[in-house]
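Tip: read the tokens left to right.
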């Protein structure tokens, strides 16, 4: 308030009494000069701060109370700030990423989704599973199990897959240290692979591999007991083979990922209006399992989750 009174006096040439009256400040309060000296407290705080340079004012206040100094913590804070003893805290650096929405892919190897999932063995030791999924065919290209992964281990797994089926155009992943290291970035540049990092805290931007992880947890990790690392590798690799070769995938017309990769390899389009999802080209041996049950699915031949147009005109028995 004293600074406000002085500002009014300078700007409007008011007297001291008039400026205090406008701001509702007592003249005696404005003229008051403290007779209290903080020099002994300042000297002791500086001495303690030199001995404990990473202690803040609260811990220094506790040390003063232990020495028998009856001083208020607010006074300690004021003298602490005036003496310039405030700690300089390093501001945490946050990784800035621009969100890249998921795009509809039209062929294999256009985009691979990469991420890690965590679990534990019987002794309580944590394990990590590196999963790589093709965004178009939904094939699980790798399920590598180990206790830890360095960036060079990740690139070795990728090179093994590339040697079998070629390199992808895009790799979508999160911002883990294995996937943001200089080695991994240089490896992607060397192989001419576009690297798409999702925004921190936005796992839905890598939704395809997150959806795959949900299936992996429900059908393998949560129903299996891993006695050791080698047993975990054996069971997880067996589930990967079942997922690719036996498990019907709803978004692929209830075909397995390997069947879809073989049949749709040369066709364009991967949405609900893709050619392989038409009624004449629905190649699953059992057909649509919803037809005999009397209810539609979101993956029906019409693509919108409703009964086919032809069934609506067959007769009045379809009208409730």
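Filled-in amino acids:
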């Amino acid at each position: 308030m004293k600074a406000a009174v002085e500002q009014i006096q300078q700007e409007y040439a008011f007297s001291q009494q008039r400026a205090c009256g406008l701001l509702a400040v007592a003249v005696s309060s404005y003229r008051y000069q403290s007779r209290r000296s903080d020099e002994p407290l300042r000297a002791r705080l500086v001495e303690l701060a030199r001995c404990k340079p990473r202690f803040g004012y609260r811990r220094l206040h506790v040390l003063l109370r232990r020495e028998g100094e009856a001083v208020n913590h607010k006074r300690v804070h004021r003298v602490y700030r005036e003496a310039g003893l405030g700690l300089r805290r390093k501001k945490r650096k946050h990784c800035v990423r621009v969100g890249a929405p998921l795009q509809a892919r039209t062929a294999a190897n256009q985009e691979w989704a990469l991420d890690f999932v965590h679990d534990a063995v019987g002794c309580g030791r944590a394990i990590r599973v590196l999963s790589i999924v093709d965004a178009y065919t939904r094939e699980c290209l790798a399920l590598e199990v180990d206790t830890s992964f360095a960036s060079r281990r990740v690139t070795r797994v990728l090179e093994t897959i590339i040697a079998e089926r070629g390199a992808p155009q895009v790799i979508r992943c999160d911002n883990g240290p294995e996937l943001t290291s200089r080695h991994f970035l240089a490896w992607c540049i060397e192989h001419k692979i576009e690297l798409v990092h999702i925004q921190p805290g936005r796992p839905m931007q890598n939704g395809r591999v997150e959806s795959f992880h949900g299936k992996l947890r429900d059908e393998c990790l949560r129903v299996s007991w891993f006695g050791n690392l080698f047993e975990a590798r054996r069971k997880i690799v067996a589930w990967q083979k079942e997922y690719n070769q036996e498990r019907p995938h709803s978004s692929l017309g209830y075909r397995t990922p390997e069947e879809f990769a073989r049949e749709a390899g040369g066709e364009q389009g991967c949405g609900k209006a893709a050619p392989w999802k038409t009624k004449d080209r629905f190649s699953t041996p059992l057909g649509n399992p919803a037809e005999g049950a009397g209810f539609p699915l979101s993956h029906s031949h019409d693509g919108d989750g409703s009964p086919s147009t032809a069934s609506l005109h067959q007769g009045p028995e379809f009208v409730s």
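The chain has twelve helices and five strands. The longest strand covers residues 111-120.
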